[in-house]
Each structure stands twice: as C-alpha cells, then as structure tokens.
Specification:
Elements (H helix, E strand, L loop, with lengths): L1 H8 L9 H6 L5 H13 L1 H9 L10 E4 L6 E4 L2 E2 L1 H10 L7 E6 L5 E5 H17 L7 E4 L5 H12 L3 E4 L6 H11 L3 E5 L2 E3 L2 E3 L1 H9 L7 E5 L13 E3 H6 L10 E2 L3 E7 L7 E6 H15 L7 E4 L6 H13 L3 E5 L10 H9 L3 E4 L1 H10 L2 H4 L8 E5 L5 H11 L6 E4 L10 E2 L14 E2 L5 E4 L13 E5 L9 E2 L3 H9 L6 E9 L5 E6 L3 E4 L2 E4 H9 L4 E11 L3 E10 L7 H14 L8 E4 L13 H8 L16 H8 L2
Parallel strand pairs: 4-17, 6-7, 6-8, 7-14, 8-11, 11-12, 16-17, 16-18, 18-19, 19-20, 31-32
Antiparallel strand pairs: 1-2, 3-13, 4-5, 9-10, 14-15, 15-25, 21-22, 23-24, 24-26, 26-27, 28-29, 30-31
Helix pairs in contact: 3-4, 5-6, 5-7, 5-12, 6-7, 8-9, 11-12, 14-16
This protein binds 5'-O-[(S)-ethoxy(hydroxy)phosphoryl]adenosine.
C-alpha cells in the first residue's frame, strides 16, 4: 500500500473543468455542492424526498427514512415500479420515439430501439414470463451476451415484480449452477451463443451443463443470436422469438413496495462462495436515477455509453436503470474493444456521436499499450465527459485518458463504489470539482465516509490511510445477503459495529478528497473483476493433484492485479509445466476465464504461522518478486519455507 501511495503522490497536478462545461452543468459550483451536501446529511428525509418526487410513484412514500444501519428502510409506504419509471414515464412524453438503446453487435450489425419499441418489447416479454409461471417474488436468472434482450429481460422481470439475477456470460457452467441454486430460480434466460473476439461463447451449452445440477429451473428461454445448432429440450426449452410472437404487448407494471426486492447480484467476498447481494426497489431506483443525472451531467441531447457488461453492477446501475430512468440514449456494444482492431471503441464513439463515455482503468491501460495511433485515427470530438470505474486509476492512465481521449476538454469522473453500494459513492462532480488524478474525490450527497484505524477510531491523520467505512444509511445500499442474513451482518457490520465496512482502504487529503487504496481483505481486483482468494483456492484444491493452495495478487501493469497461486501437491503427483497449465484450465473451467491464474508456483510447503494461518503477506511479496521480505516473520513456523519459495520462482 505504501508504494502505491508514494507513486500517486508524485502526481500533484490539479485539473479544472472548463467554464463552458460549468455553465451548462446541472450543479455548477462548489458552494452549491457544499450546501446540498450539508442538507443531505442534516435533513436526509427532506433531501431524498425531493429527489424521489422526480420519479413516478403509484403511491407516494409516507416516510422517507426509517431506522438506521444496518437495517434502514427507505421510502416506506411508497409503491413504484422501475420498469414503469424507465419506460412508461417517457413514452407518455416527446421521448416516445427517442432512441433508448443503440446496440452494435461484435460482427457489426446495428439495432436501434426507441423508448416506444423497448416499452412494447418489455411488456411482451413480461407476458411471456407470466405464461411460464413466473409470479411476483420469483427469481429469474439471466445468462445472456450484451444484446438488447438482456435489458428487455431485466425490465420485464421487474415489471411483474419478479427478481432477476444476472450472471455474467463469462462465468462457467458450474459458477452459473451455483448461482441458480442459491437463488432457486424458476426460469433461465440464455442464448445459443454470443460473440467475443471473433469467437462464439457457448452459452446454451454451459446452461445445459449447469441445469443438470440446478433442479429449480422449470423453463429455459433461448435467444437466437448466433444461429448455431443447439439442442432444445422439449417442454423445458423455448425459443425467445417464438414465445414473443404469441405474446401481447400490453402488461401493466406491478406496483412494488419500496422495500420489496428488485434484484440479486452475486459478488465475491473474502470468504466462501459468492454472496447474493440484494437490492430493493425504491432506494436503488432513486439513488441510481439521481447519481446518473448529476455525476454524468446527463441531458436529453446526450449519447451515453457505459462499456461495462450488464452482468456486473456497473451494467445494472449505469447501463440499464440509471440512464433509462433519466430517458437517456444508451449505446450498448456486444464485443471486445480490440475486435477486429484496437480502435473499435473509437469507431463506435464517432459513429454514434457518443458524448459521455464510462469505462474501466484496465481498458484504458490496454489502449495505452496498443498505442495512441488508434484513437488518433478518429475525431472523438463529440465527447464531453469521461468516467472511470472498477479499480483505482493510476495517474499515468488518468492523464492519458484525459489527453488522448478527452483532448484536455472533457472532465473525468473517477467513480468509487461497489456492488453492495448500488450506486456511485465517491467522485468529483464534473462541473464543480477540480480533478486530482488518482483521487476519486468527494462523497456524493447523503454519503458519509470515514477513515478508521483497526480499532475503529477515526485515524488521527487521514493522509496516512485506514479502513473506509460509511457511517450513515444511503438509499441504494444492499439490504441483505440473499438467504444468509447472518453473513450480511458479519461481513459488513461487525468489523466496525454500526458502520458499513467497505473492505477498501482509503486516505483523505486536506481538501477532503478521498484516494482509494484498494482492498484490505482477501479480495482481488483483476481487470476490474472482483474475485475472492478463497473461491480460487477452493477451485484449486478441488483438483485431484492439489493438497493445499494459497492465492495472492501481484501488481500487474494492465490488469491492476494478476492471480498467483502457490500450490502444494499430493503424494504421487510431480510438478510439471503441463500440470501448471492443467490447473489454470481447471480454475477457468470451474469459475470462468476471468479467474484463470496468471501463474502457478509449486512449493513443498506454504508459509504458516504457528497457529496454522497462511501468511499471505509474505506470499504477496514473493509473488511480486521482492528480494527482501519486509515486516515481521517471527511468527513463521518454519523460517526456511520463505527461502525455498523464493528459489522456486
Ligand atoms: C474497487 C464495481 C478505486 C474497490 C463498481 C471496490 C475502485 C471494488 C473504484 C468494487 C474506483 C471500484 N477507484 N477502486 N473508482 N471503483 N473500485 O463490486 O476496491 O465489482 O471495493 O463494483 O472495486 O467492485 P464491484
């Protein structure tokens, strides 16, 4: 952590939004921000009540906030539906024929759905779901590529009051099975395949494999995307287009209690299997609506593109719910950034006149590696605002993004948040705050962060860093871990009782800007994807050759972190390169390609304390190739282990 701080501190320049940007921004001055921020903490009910009134409610809330962390209730007594807010509300206005989704497939096809088109499609699919027996509160698992049907399926599910669980298309059959089982989903929506870097991801094949082990699913709806032959099980499997043909395009939105479930999204934690993070309707709706509007300074004229996958929280909040509730035109792209060539993103920006681009540091670092010549081939003059999310952005990447993509004209919002927070928590506001590369910035309205030491006291000097916690309830916080309320408390509210512990380290400077230092728990952030070390280790020990495994992150110039696995073998198995490859493939098979270890190292023993705990701190240093092992090693049970590990590199 210390090294990262040192590297970041070297960059001291501050960048200011232009007068032109400020003039047109929703929020224009620091005074305005300060006033609203103060109000949001002093009178959260007044503040959020006012924001909520910008949305449509079948029944307005009677009480804006009831209770406190860890179990606050927001917008009590209110009834709303987010599909109604994302669609019906706009269809009743001039936005009826405005483009809602501009979609581009990886092979190059284009589809535009207006708000009216999307509204009709969503209602038809809502009727399809009803016909398949889906009722309010039932779970629907969505395992699709980045195609409009993913958005349609999500909005149709919530339209009838059911709960979606979107599983990223890059997850394997067994990861999918685990998530279906945990949610006890009744219906699975998938596709014959999806395009990725010129190849086809065999989604239906994975789904079939997953369903052998996930008996709750009664029906599977299959979108025809690639046209590949796929087996269809009579009675269970149905083609999307056939069901849609027969469905009516009118289906009333179900009025939902504000605290009724909206969706489950699985994410990795420091222990055990992935957690089903549960978000509810009212708070999530209000917060994603409002953060999208202010942080992306969204206007009706904008063409907004978030490059995340809908399988992650960024896709949920800032491709689907936030932008559509704002009536925005949303660009959606199916494939890889470097297909067929490394300028695909820049082609898309110019082709559709994208004005707001929201992407991840890992992508930016790849673009840097591929070279400036690719973006320089394109005008990029439609862009007016850039965003970053998913991991700390190093100042070098920040500056490249600012200069080469934004041409020094576009403010950058470096947005810190998590699956659990539902929406963006810390960022600069684009027309307000000076930008400091490497610093996410200030808390958004209603967010009260603090930096605590290990004992739970606010750190004396916030510049030194500590645990990042959130001290007050905010509308879009997770409400529980699906099916495991104890884990919710244990994971988020036990380390610092009464406060939400983020799992991140952070420091704060004299201007009140937060710098995120990365995870302080056993969670890796690999190319912006969250992976638990325990999950990776369990996958490794499930292989017959593996006795013990310890997984750590190693700093990586492109991915942020790379996965390094230290493995001891069972009797009768000999280390070999072939076995290394086999173990990497094994983990990719069990979890998904994003979890494939970058390096496997065999060792006779793992460094442990006398009480048997693996000393990950040492492994991290060894993985990073450090010659001098720093810090206390006196608790190490066998001092020779470290020397041997270093030799084994
Ligand atoms: C990290 C993604 C630094 C952080 C929205 C967090 C960031 C984890 C930033 C959540 C940022 C996300 N700067 N770090 N701007 N944004 N992170 O749940 O470690 O996939 O805890 O949500 O990503 O990842 P998740």
């Amino acid at each position: 952590m210390q090294e990262r701080i040192e590297a970041l501190l070297k960059e001291e320049r501050v960048f200011y939004p232009s007068e032109e940007f400020k003039r047109q921004a929703h929020i224009k001055s620091e005074e305005e921000y300060e006033r609203l921020y103060r109000e949001s903490l002093e009178d959260p009910e007044g503040f959020w009540g006012r924001v909520a009134s910008e949305l449509h409610w079948f029944e307005p809330p009677k009480k804006v906030l009831e209770g406190d962390l860890p179990h606050p209730k927001w917008f009590v007594g209110g009834r709303l539906n987010l599909s109604y807010n994302a669609l019906d509300r706009h269809v009743q206005t001039w936005r009826r024929n405005k483009a809602a989704l501009i979609w581009e497939g990886e092979p190059g096809e284009e589809r535009v759905l207006t708000y009216y088109d999307l509204w009709r499609e969503v209602q038809r699919f809502a009727n399809v779901l009803k016909r398949l027996g889906v009722r309010k509160g039932d779970r629907v698992t969505i395992y699709l590529p980045m195609i409009p049907e993913a958005v349609i399926a999500m909005l149709a599910t919530v339209r009838i009051g059911a709960v979606h669980s979107v599983v990223f298309g890059g997850f394997s059959a067994s990861a999918l099975a685990e998530r279906i089982k945990d949610a006890e989903a009744k219906v699975l929506i998938t596709a014959d395949g999806g395009y990725r870097r010129g190849g086809i991801v065999p989604l239906k094949q994975n789904a079939d494999e997953a369903l052998q082990d996930a008996p709750s699913v009664q029906h599977v709806v299959v979108v025809r995307r690639t046209g590949e032959e796929v087996p269809m099980l009579p009675g269970r499997d149905h083609w999307w287009h056939e069901l849609m043909e027969a469905a009516s395009d009118r289906c009333e939105a179900e009025p939902m209690e504000a605290e009724e479930p909206l969706f489950i999204l699985y994410t990795s934690g420091s222990t055990g299997k992935p957690k089903g993070v549960l978000h509810t309707t009212g708070g999530y709706g209000v917060y994603t609506y409002y953060t999208t509007k202010l942080i992306f300074d969204l206007k009706d004229e904008d063409v907004y593109w978030c490059t995340a996958d809908v399988g992650w929280i960024t896709g949920h909040s800032y491709i689907v719910y936030g932008p559509l509730m704002n009536g925005a035109t949303v660009v959606m792209y199916e494939g890889a950034p470097n297909w067929p060539e490394p300028d695909r993103f820049w082609r898309i920006v110019d082709k559709y006149g994208v004005t707001i681009l929201y992407t991840a540091p890992t992508a930016i670092r790849s673009f840097m590696k591929w070279g400036e010549q690719w973006p320089l081939k394109h005008r990029l003059d439609s862009l007016r605002l850039l965003g970053s999310v998913g991991e700390p952005i190093n100042p070098e990447a920040w500056l490249w993004y600012y200069r080469v993509i934004g041409k020094g004209r576009c403010p950058i919002v470096d947005t810190w948040w998590q699956t659990e927070t539902g929406g963006i928590m810390i960022t600069t506001l684009p027309g307000v705050h000076p930008m400091k590369p490497g610093h996410a910035g200030k808390p958004f309205f209603g967010v009260k962060p603090e930096i605590l030491d290990a004992e739970g006291k606010p750190v004396q000097n916030p510049e030194e860093g500590g645990h990042l916690v959130i001290e007050r309830p905010w509308p879009s916080m997770l409400r529980t871990v699906w099916g495991d309320p104890d884990r919710f408390i244990k994971q988020y509210f036990s380390q610092h009782p009464g406060k939400y512990f983020t799992g991140d380290g952070a420091k704060r400077d004299a201007d009140g800007y937060y710098m995120i230092l990365g995870r302080v728990d056993d969670v890796l952030n690999v190319a912006g994807h969250r992976l638990g070390t325990m999950e990776l280790e369990s996958a490794l020990v499930a292989h017959p050759a593996v006795a013990e495994a310890a997984v750590v992150g190693r700093p990586d110039p492109i991915k942020g972190e790379a996965i390094v696995a230290f493995v001891t073998l069972k009797e009768g198995f000999a280390p070999s390169d072939a076995l290394k490859d086999e173990l990497k493939a094994h983990v990719a098979k069990l979890i998904g390609p994003i979890a494939r270890p970058d390096e496997v190292r065999f060792t006779d023993a793992l460094p442990k304390t006398r009480s048997g705990k693996i000393m990950r701190r040492l492994l991290r240093q060894i993985a990073a190739g450090e010659q001098e092992i720093k810090g206390d090693t006196s608790t190490l049970e066998d001092q020779r282990v470290v020397e041997k590990l270093k030799e084994g590199a």
